Amino acid sequence: MQPTLDIVFAALSDPTRRQILTMLLEDDMAVTDVAEPFEMSLAAISKHLTILTRAGLISQEKRGRVKWCKLEPDALRDASIWMQCFGQFEAVNLDAFERFLEQELSGAGEG
Hints:
By secondary structure, the chain is of the alpha+beta class. Strands 1-3-2 form a 3-stranded antiparallel beta sheet. It contains 6 helices and 3 strands, in the order ααβααββαα.
């Protein structure tokens, strides 16, 4: 079963999970090595890994006594295609947009 975009984006919404994915870009890692840089329990990291696995973003396998995590790069394909649909629009100048909103909101109270 192909994970839905909702599941993928929900998994990507957490900064810890995004950092884990970045770490796995380099190579497969043991769960204990994934957990090392984080100030949280191994159980908490395991929950993050379960969410990433359910979203299809990583796979986990046991090699001997050690559980390994592997990035599944194809899992982001549908999300990437969906996001590219918005690439046809010109990038928003956020500073100009913020100034516009401030003008509109300050002007709304007048008159």
